[in-house]
Amino acid sequence: MKMGHESRRLDEQEVKIVRELIRNPRISDNKISKKTGIPVMTVNRKRKRLEEERLLRYYISLDKGEFGLHIFEAKKLYIIKFKMGITRNRYLKALEDDPMWRMLNSRFISLAYLGGKDGHLALTIVLDAPTGDQLVEEFNGKIIPFLREKLGDDAISDVITCSLDKLVRVHHNYLPAINMEKGHIKKEWPDDLIFVNEV
């Protein structure tokens, strides 16, 4: 159990439904029913339940990098380690409701996680920018000053960086250069290569 949520396993029908949604998030309940043999009303009920339980989430991914629009040619992973005493609750209270931080997050930060590094709270972000120079300017000129303003001048104890230059896999199943075509997983991609919850 984690953060007040009970863990549960997907049943056999749910696994089949989710696998079809992974293949094509826009698929209708009728088509899922035809492909899986699960009655359409059951598909509809189970899909709604998975959404209500927040187990299913739908995202649009507009490729702004190497396979798409080429808007963002520079991408870097940053691990920002905060000083001892900065807690998850303090971070969330200071930043996550701030409209300025949300704007920074949606414009250049493509992914962000809170976690831990060496016993410290750490913010891991993937930052995108049109050029390497703009990436540095965004990080050092906007993100770091904003974090210091909200959490204190001495809030950051270390920053670790890593350049990212070749996307190979997203969300376990999506390999853009191999199994994607017209925004979906290719029809011939085998079901046993689509991860749902088998560990």
Can you offer a commentary on this structure?
The model has no long low-confidence stretch (mean pLDDT 86). 16% of the residues are buried. A hairpin with a 2-residue loop joins strand 2 (109-117) and strand 3 (120-129). By secondary structure, the protein is of the alpha+beta class. The protein has six helices and six strands.
What keyword list fits this structure?
alpha+beta; Arc Repressor Mutant, subunit A; Alpha-Beta Plaits; 2 domains; 6 helices; 6 strands; 20% strand; globular
Which segments are poorly predicted (pLDDT under 50) over 5 or more consecutive residues? none
User: Could you give a short account of the major beta sheet?
Assistant: 4 strands, antiparallel
User: What order do the strands of the largest sheet run in, or round the barrel if closed?
Assistant: 2-3-1-4
Helix segment tally: 6
Helix content: 25-40%
Number of strands: 6
Order of helices and strands: HHHEHHEEHEEE
Broad CATH class of the largest domain: Alpha Beta
Count of the domains: 2
Query: What is the CATH third-level topology name of the largest domain?
Result: Alpha-Beta Plaits
| Mean pLDDT reading | 86
The oligomeric status of these chains comes to single chain
CA gyration radius, whole angstroms: 20 Å
Q: So what's the overall shape?
A: globular
